Amino acid sequence: MTWVESLQKAINYMEEHLLDEISIDSIAKQANFSAFHFQRTFSILTDISVGEYLRRRRLTLAAHELNRENTKIIDIAYKYGYDTPEAFSKAFRRQHGITPSEARKYAGRLKSYNRLVIQVSVKGAEPMQYKIVEREAFQIVGIKREFSCINQQNQIDIPKMWDKVNGDGTDDLLFRLNDGLIEGVLGVCVDKSSEVIDYWIGTTYEGDVPDGLVALTIPESKWAVFEVHGPMPDAMPKVWKQIFSEWFPSSGYKHAGIPELEVYSEEDPSSPDLYSEIWIPVK
């Protein structure tokens, strides 16, 4: 099964179980991904979380039913996973801009979020500069924090962690410790469960772990190393999207299932000539 087919199978599974309580683990299993990797891939491709996609689709179907059927609003609320009519009405209004009662009377416009279909991009996209390298297992040292992935809270908290590291001198220490195996400071996500990750800010370093830091071993792997050119924070997400929407579907490679690496240099992060890298483990 190809990469695109795997993702589409998971999306089809979500669509077939929109009226059920389904877990991210059961969805990711359809694509043969870890829960974390599936959520990350999905959000990069669509700019929304899995939970938000399910919510939008359920409220879209609820709006269709309000327009077509005479089912009581309270019964529609329960059908689409809301415990009370009040909770349903609040969520419905947030998405559509009108209440369920107004939708039934055709008093306003509705937003329809349609079923996703994953396709390979065949347009003339910008070229991607990358190389394939092999690395034996190596050690990074640095600091780590645990973050929740619920409602994409990690995307809010991780930048705050970087702000602290950049402000308290930890980044300067890591640049000094770097042994040159991968030049720069690394950002590394390690999934622990469907809801929690460990995020590391570290650098490659062999030897005894310095005081105040902890160590992580990155397993042996083949890596696709992508060049990232441009200022933060926009340049990195742009290349991530290209990797998952263009490169993976057409490359023949699959994700190897170990942590990915973002590599940052000592250059000014606002510089238009800033050079960074994304390392993707592949097989």
UniProtKB/TrEMBL annotation:
Organism: Virgibacillus salarius
Domain of life the protein comes from: Bacteria
Residue ranges of every copy of the HTH araC/xylS-type domain listed in the record: 8-106
Identification of the protein by name: AraC family transcriptional regulator
Keyword annotations: DNA-binding, Transcription, Transcription regulation
InterPro entries: AraC_E-bd, Cass2, Homeodomain-like_sf, HTH_AraC, HTH_AraC-typ_CS, MarA-like, Reg_factor_effector_dom_sf, Tscrpt_reg_AraC-type_HTH
One GO MF term attached to the UniProt entry: DNA-binding transcription factor activity
PANTHER family (UniProt xref): RIGHT ORIGIN-BINDING PROTEIN
